[in-house]
Design brief:
There is one protein chain. The protein is mainly beta. Helix content is 7%, strand content 39%. A five-stranded antiparallel beta sheet has the order 1-2-9-4-7, with no helix packed on it. It has a four-stranded antiparallel beta sheet with strand order 3-8-5-6, with no helix packed on it. Strand 1 and strand 2 form a beta hairpin. The longest helix is centred in the first third of the chain and has 9 residues. The protein is globular. 21% of the residues are buried.
């Protein structure tokens, strides 16, 4: 299955096409070194993250409990419950990646911290200065 085979809203399909190389895996980049980036993703009830791509190993930790729906580039839609402290690790080899977005379908705010290891087998995707902590109003 691919996005074109889904019954997703047209604006979501268009966002996947437009943001297929978006490296902003959170709302704000809170720290960055030569080896890693640390992101925060905050989603109010009903909010959805931007479509983004992961190209190197990373992990996320949920800071709050809640419920979310994830949309994936291959057409999958996965719903799940999260608990505070829950952590998942992901690994990607040369040429591998994953593009998705996350929608808060619960009644509480979701907050995730994500750590990307940008010194992996794939070049890290660029991120604009506007998402860096000092640039966020």
């Amino acid at each position: 299955m691919t996005i074109s085979d889904t019954d997703w809203p047209a604006e979501l399909v268009a966002e996947f096409k437009a943001n297929s190389q978006n490296g902003c895996v959170g709302n704000v980049l809170v720290s960055e070194t030569d080896d890693l980036r640390i992101w925060h993703l905050r989603l109010a009830p009903g909010a959805r993250s931007n479509v983004h791509r992961h190209v190197n190993d990373y992990f996320w930790s949920s800071m709050t409990a809640g419920r979310a729906r994830s949309y994936f580039e291959d057409g999958r839609v996965v719903e799940g419950d999260y608990f505070a402290g829950q952590t998942r690790h992901f690994s990607y080899g040369r040429g591998e990646s994953m593009c998705h977005c996350v929608e808060n379908i619960g009644e509480t705010e979701l907050l995730f911290a994500t750590v990307e290891f940008i010194n992996g087998p794939n070049a890290p995707l660029p991120v604009p200065d506007s998402v860096r902590l000092g640039a966020v109003a």
